[in-house]
Design goal:
heterodimer, A: two-stranded antiparallel sheet, B: alpha+beta, six-stranded mixed beta sheet, five-stranded mixed beta barrel, 20 strands, 24% helix
């Protein structure tokens, strides 16, 4: 709606609401409100609160604002948690992503039994970590099915079962069991988004199976894989239940989340726990931004046939 | 590493079934080296299936394909050495124009210098030299299509397959690209199989046409043969016989038969084996002349009422009604008005009478006309 031209200005004035709408300000912005409120109430405020808390160490740790951080990095036992967590999180995410590629590649497009297989692969997600961990304790323990089969096969004996529990490998296995379906589903959806006629075109141009994958599908898939890796890494990095249930929580799988938990609920030192949580966030951020920075250098446009 | 030319490409009894449905039924076709063959038919007639079978993207259910005395239907697509242009272009979005065009050469391990020279040459042919370093997403539809063509011809394929390459372009661009494709074919002499549902495209481009219907070949011939003497009502529908009237043959003397229906009686030329009974009478809109019969040639004089007129510049396109309500399309330069009842004249030799019932031709009733 325009107002009639006034004596001082010959051009018709455009209504304020139209001028705002041109800059993207209109009532549909209200749709963002619930999300914004949620973010403020449940993420930004707790985050700032925790940050503030971490900067107010208990008197016994010293007086400096950064005392908690200084203590963390000077104590070898605590400092090691960064390395321990990375040593679990990075390979777990990498294994999940790399394992999902060939399976998703084979299952892209129409394949008989695809739905059945997809369902079977997704079930671990729906069960939750604790239930999965409980099952794994049964299965992988010294007297579990896996070791019994290995004993029957003569590959091991009752005194030397393959140790798959309460160590690094127990946690790793659980992260693969729970993280792989997640990686697989994401990879499958990224792959399905690549126009199959691209590979058909490559074939008519003389590219064999491996060349088609290497030169066409893989480069188009890599940005999606980077994203999948990040999400999987975040899940693996904050591993807690399986590190406790299937790992060796005071030693080889003393991950950062356990360190934070111990600080908060064993020592009742919320300030120290907050500091550990902050360090955890920074490490995750460093890994993710490195991956995403690398991803930014790749082709990320549409992967449809029309380019 | 030039692919050697061939004398004959033979499709023998080629069939393709999807489950219970036969999409392509015993196609026999021999293509001579250097020829431009168009497969013509509506969507679902099996023309794209035939092309994918040729390319190796779909296995045959039956039959064989031979290049001279080499059997090719058992080879995977990458070993056939055929270039293909896809309907959606299928350009590699992460590679530049140069990368796309050079892809086939790279797969053939052509040296850098030689490859660079051939890509330049192909880009020059399709007039895209200045766009070599762009990504496909930065090009217009017509430019993308030209990249797709350059990519297919740079490998000097034994056979070029084109799957409705112009159907995603707008009307003006389509005409330009048609000329371009014809020019490329004439200058390079590449054997081409071209799939289209557009009869105008097929007639103007091809040396030979294959009309398909539900996987079965209806007629094979030069554009002149198909346009001049369609073998059946279905082909006629594709060749501009926009009026396909189901009528009943009442009398026949030699090649000339008379059919009646819709309140009129028409005498025309019999095509095929006609006996008294149901028939389809095919007439092109251009062959219906508005006015009283001229002296001399024999023909049919009927009266029609004008229902819709469309102005087309030199001529008007008219939808008229026969006495019992059947629609009749005609084109004329005589001014007629809506609601008017006008006499029209149809020369006998322009009326074709085919055996069959309307069901065979009805799906063609709304086809656009040839040669507008």
């Amino acid at each position: 709606m325009t107002t009639p031209a006034s004596a001082t200005d010959d051009r018709p004035r455009v209504a304020l609401s139209h001028r705002l709408a041109e800059r993207g300000v209109d009532r549909s912005l209200l749709l963002l409100l619930p999300g914004a409120l949620f973010l403020i109430a449940f993420f930004i405020y707790p985050f700032l609160y925790g940050l503030n808390l971490s900067l107010h160490p208990l008197p016994k740790h010293g007086t400096g604002v950064l005392a908690n951080y200084v203590n963390f990095f000077t104590d070898p036992y605590q400092r090691a948690t960064i390395w321990i967590t990375l040593k679990i999180g990075l390979p777990a995410a990498l294994i999940n992503v790399l394992a999902s590629v060939p399976i998703a590649y084979r299952l892209r497009g129409k394949v008989r039994g695809k739905r059945l297989l997809t369902t079977a692969l997704v079930i671990p997600i729906t069960l939750g970590t604790v239930l999965t961990a409980a099952g794994m304790i049964e299965y992988f323990s010294g007297t579990g099915w896996l070791n019994r089969v290995l004993m029957v096969a003569g590959l091991t004996d009752v005194d030397h079962p393959v140790p798959l529990l309460h160590n690094y490998w127990g946690v790793m296995l659980s992260l693969v069991v729970s993280g792989f379906p997640f990686a697989f589903l994401l990879t499958l959806s990224y792959l399905s988004g690549i126009d199959p006629s691209l590979e058909a075109a490559a074939a008519t141009l003389g590219a064999g199976r491996w060349q088609r994958f290497r030169s066409i599908s893989f480069p188009l898939l890599v940005p999606g894989l980077a994203m999948t890796f990040c999400l999987n890494f975040v899940l693996a990095f904050s591993v807690f239940p399986s590190a406790v249930l299937l790992g060796d929580p005071q030693d080889t799988t003393h991950v950062m989340s356990i360190a934070a938990y111990d600080a908060a609920y064993q020592e009742y030192d919320y300030s120290k726990a907050s500091a550990i949580a902050m360090i955890m966030a920074v490490v995750m951020l460093v890994v993710i931004s490195t991956v995403l920075l690398g991803r930014g250098r790749l082709y990320r446009g549409s992967s449809g046939g029309k380019g | 590493m030039t692919e050697q030319r061939f004398d004959q490409l033979r499709l023998q009894q080629v069939s393709r079934r999807f489950g219970e449905k036969t999409v392509l039924d015993t196609l026999n076709l021999t293509i001579t080296g250097g020829e431009f063959v168009a497969l013509l038919g509506p969507s679902g007639c099996g023309k794209s299936t035939a092309l994918n079978c040729l390319a190796g993207l779909l296995p045959l259910t039956q039959g064989s394909i031979w290049l001279d005395d080499q059997r090719v239907d058992t080879l995977p697509p990458e070993r056939r050495g055929f270039g293909m242009v896809f309907q959606n272009y299928a350009l590699f979005p992460h590679l530049t124009v140069r990368g796309n065009v050079g892809f086939g050469l790279q797969m053939r391990r052509v040296g850098r210098v030689e490859s660079h020279r051939r890509v330049d040459e192909a880009l020059r042919l399709v007039q895209l030299t200045d766009y070599a370093d762009r990504l496909p997403g930065q090009l217009s539809g017509g430019q993308q299509q030209r990249v797709a063509i350059a990519r297919a011809i740079v490998i000097e394929p034994r056979l070029v397959l084109m799957d409705e390459p112009l159907s995603n372009l707008d009307a003006a661009l389509r005409l330009d690209m048609r000329t371009e494709i014809r020019r490329l074919h004439q200058s390079l002499g590449l054997t081409t199989v071209y799939v289209t549902h557009d009869q105008e495209e097929a007639l103007s481009l091809a040396d030979r046409l294959v009309v398909l219907r539900e996987g079965v070949v209806q007629q094979v011939g030069t554009p002149q043969q198909l346009y001049g003497s369609p073998a059946n009502a279905y082909v006629a529908g594709f060749m501009g016989y926009r009026n396909l009237l189901s009528m009943t043959v009442t009398a026949g003397v030699g090649a000339s038969v008379t059919a009646s229906g819709h309140g009129v009686e028409l005498t025309g030329l019999a095509v095929g084996d006609l006996s008294p009974g149901p028939a389809i009478v095919a007439i092109r809109p251009d062959d219906i002349l508005v006015g009283e019969p001229p002296a001399g040639p024999s023909g049919n004089r009927i009266e029609v009422s004008v229902e819709v007129t469309e102005y087309h510049g030199r001529q008007i396109s008219v939808q008229a009604r026969l006495p019992h309500g059947q629609a009749l399309q005609l084109r004329t330069d005589v001014p007629v008005e809506r609601g008017e009842v006008v006499p029209v004249w149809i020369p006998t030799e322009q009326v074709l009478v085919f055996p069959g019932s309307q069901a065979a031709g009805s799906e063609q009733a709304d086809r656009t006309e040839v040669g507008v």
